[in-house]
Design goal:
The complex is a heterodimer of chains A (450) and B (199). By secondary structure, chain A is mainly α. Chain A contains 23 helices and one strand. The longest helix of chain A has 26 residues, at 134-159. Chain A is globular. Chain B contains four helices and nine strands. Chain B has helices at 2-7, 12-63, 79-88, 172-180; strands spanning 10-11, 72-73, 102-105, 110-111, 114-115, 122-126, 147-148, 160-163, 166-171. Chain B has a six-stranded mixed beta sheet. A two-stranded antiparallel sheet of chain B has the order 4-5. In chain B, helix 2 (12-63) crosses helix 3 (79-88). Classes of the chains: A mainly alpha (450), B alpha+beta (199).
């Protein structure tokens, strides 16, 4: 006679494993990756209805949170308004006293109007807006900035091909980046031009991708005339020996300069070159420039070293030397990678690097300038998702939070958290980009096994 | 290969415990980080106030009177900054909470129950974390009343005040530092007006 089958101790009366033994169940890296894969590549993130609702909701929250700033005049944009008025009246907008006198007449003495430090072309572009009264001008500028923001979102989604990405998460992440993003909000509150510059650069890259170098270089030069930092793309193209592109850019630049001279005369450009010469060659900086590197919200390398020296009661004149040493040391560390970087044709990668570099090279990196890091962060996130390298998600999210959500105040060195995150952003980007995806690793394993 | 995978990995209990430890570390790390940031902010603000005080004192030595600023908040447009610049070495007009420093110079100012009676008197203040004056009044009978501990977050909202180069109101660690460096705590204005109407 057969003995009855003894039920194993691991099962309860219903034949299921007990909860304690369930908790003792082994979880491997493969299991965790599979679980995360299920989350990241969930079909919900690709469902058209869900995506539309999410994107519209994020956009609505973004617009609603920005709209209150239409009730008053921006902080930085009166500078462009005054410069546009000055250009129309033939006043030297680069002479501090005359500029301030015009600003006092326009806005009153109680209004703080920062000096105008951009090329005359920027002031000329603002002439049509300067026909409005200051409050309407401020509102119009806010509207243009909001539209430029959405244009940047569209261009980024197109450049990174988020629509055809295996996961819908990067597109959702892009829209979520609009929410309570401190540098972005600062840009819009201050009436700054960062979104115009970013839109021009992204448009330039998109046209370059479509093999239209002349039009691409036009938008790049437009961005250079707004803020000098996009010129780093031209340097990169020169190193890539894309001489035809650079030549087109030079033609476009000369063309813009000529149009500007024809419209408002040569005197403004002469005054601009004179002030640049005085500031950077002769060192005769006006008061506004003098204390820039001491400002706690200047998150540039030079500001960091200046404040570091002040913290230890040492002379601040060594700050520039420290910056040069730091950059030289960084270049020496990555010298082998630089050559391979120049040869890279992946536009998304070099776009992310080149947009980040000026924040480190400039002596003025205000907190609103860090809005341009939306580009590398989005690229990194899309790569992490595509390559399923989830272990890099934690440092990525920490850096993203440090740049986008860290409060603007803080004693030294806490006021430079954004700068530290930006410095670390480049090696992280490099690491993510050159990490093999799990699929490629599995293919290699299978190949080796065979 | 399958057996190897089964032997690898960790149990769910282990995973949950590790997750809890990480969350615990993150929470406490964040609390300590915020505290450290607030302490650094108040230290940097105090250091800047001492710089301004030293610069004004040096200016007074050369000119006999303090540079003019009767109304409080400073800004780079004001002649006050331009006059002080050669002595200052930097022109940081905001405290590290991102609010303007308040500086009252010359005779006739009444703030915090303090009054300036001479042309070379000056008061420097930072309004703290929220940038709002907190209504504290100086008591000439109890000058130590100006010291306060930094225990909760709301303590960082208190104003810190310097008059004629000496701390009138500050966290204890700043006052103690000054005592150990031999700086007198009595500001010498015992006839301070109790009106203290803020400008």
């Amino acid at each position: 006679m057969l003995e009855p089958i003894k039920k194993p101790d691991t099962e309860n009366k219903r034949g299921r494993p007990s909860s304690i033994l369930f908790l003792k169940k082994k979880v491997t890296g493969t299991d965790m990756t599979a679980y995360l894969d299920g989350l990241v590549f969930h079909p919900l993130w690709k469902k058209r209805t869900f995506v539309w609702i999410f994107c519209v909701l994020c956009s609505a929250v973004f617009i609603v949170s920005i709209i209150p700033h239409s009730a008053d005049i921006d902080i930085d944009s009166p500078s462009y308004y005054t410069a546009a008025k000055g250009i129309q009246k033939g006043i030297n907008i680069y002479e501090e006293e005359r500029f301030q006198s015009l600003a006092d007449q326009t806005f009153g003495r109680s209004m703080i109007v920062w000096p105008f430090i951009y090329p005359p072309l920027t002031a000329q572009i603002f002439i049509p807006l300067a026909l409005l009264n200051p409050l309407d001008y401020s509102r119009a500028l806010l509207l243009i900035n909001i539209l430029a923001t959405f244009l940047c979102v569209f261009l980024l989604a197109d450049l990174l091909k988020l629509g055809s990405h295996p996961s819908g998460l990067p597109l959702l992440f892009l829209f979520s980046m609009l929410l309570f993003n401190f540098p972005l909000y600062r840009t819009l509150e201050f009436g700054q031009l960062n979104m115009w510059v970013m839109a021009s650069v992204l448009l330039s890259l998109r046209l370059d991708k479509k093999d239209r170098p002349f039009l691409s270089s036009f938008f790049l030069m437009l961005a250079v005339f707004f803020k000098i930092f996009p010129a780093v793309f031209l340097v990169f193209y020169l190193l890539q020996k894309r001489f035809r592109y650079v030549l087109f850019a030079v033609f476009n630049g000369i063309g813009m300069l000529l149009i500007s001279v024809v419209v408002s005369g040569l005197s403004h450009w002469i005054n601009y070159v004179r002030i640049l010469f005085k500031s950077f060659i002769l060192g005769e900086k006006p008061l506004y420039f003098f204390d820039f590197t001491a400002f706690l919200n200047n998150n540039s390398l030079k500001a960091f070293f200046t404040q570091l020296l002040q913290h230890f009661n040492m002379p601040r004149s060594s700050a520039s030397l420290l910056v040069i040493l730091f950059l030289a040391g960084s270049i020496i560390l990555v010298r082998k990678k630089i050559r391979s970087f120049i040869q890279i044709r992946d536009q998304n990668f070099y776009m992310s690097v080149l947009i980040t570099l000026p924040l480190l090279l400039s002596s003025m990196s205000w907190q609103h300038h860090f809005v341009s890091l939306i580009v590398p962060f989005l690229f990194m996130f899309s790569l992490i998702v595509e390559k399923r390298t989830y272990s890099l998600l934690i440092p990525f999210l920490m850096m993203y939070a440090a740049v986008s959500y860290f409060p603007p105040y803080g004693g030294f060195p806490f006021n430079h958290v954004r700068l530290f995150a930006t410095v670390l952003c480049l090696p992280l980007l490099y690491r993510i980009y050159f990490t093999n995806s799990k699929k490629e690793l599995r293919k290699k394993e299978l190949f080796n096994a065979v | 290969m399958g057996e190897k995978i089964d032997k690898a990995g960790m149990s769910l209990i282990n995973l949950c415990l590790r997750g809890l430890i990480i969350v615990f570390l993150l929470v406490f790390g964040t609390i300590f980080f915020i505290r450290a940031r607030n302490m650094a902010t108040i230290r940097s603000t105090a250091a800047d106030m001492i710089r301004y005080s030293t610069a004004i004192t040096d200016y007074i030595t050369d000119h006999g009177v303090a540079p003019t600023n009767p109304f409080g908040p400073i800004h780079h447009k004001k002649p006050f900054i331009r006059e002080l610049l050669p002595y200052l070495g930097m022109a940081r007009c905001m405290d590290w909470w991102r609010y303007p420093f308040r500086i009252w110079t010359g005779a006739g100012n009444r703030i915090y129950g303090l009054s300036t009676t001479r042309d070379n008197d000056f008061i420097i203040a930072s309004f703290g974390k929220k940038g709002l004056i907190d209504g504290w009044k100086y008591d000439p009978g109890d000058p130590d009343r100006g010291g306060f501990p930094l225990i909760s977050t709301s303590d960082f909202e208190r104003d810190i005040v310097l008059m004629n180069g000496e701390w009138v109101r500050a966290p204890f660690f700043i006052l103690d530092k000054n005592r150990s460096s031999g700086q007198a705590k009595n500001i010498g204005h015992k006839d301070g007006d109790e009106d203290g109407s803020a400008r």
